[in-house]
Amino acid sequence: MPEPTGDELTAVRERRRQLRSSYLRPLGERPAPTTRGIHHAAFVCRDVEETIRFYQEFLGFPLVELVENRDYAGSSHFFFDLGNHTLLGFFDFPGLEQEPYKETIGALQHLALSVSAEQFDTALAKLDASGIDYVGPDRGADDSLYIRDPNGMGIELYREELGRFDGLELL
Question: Which residues have C-beta within 8 Å of that of residue 152, sequence separation ≥ 6?
Answer without folding.
Answer: 100, 101, 102
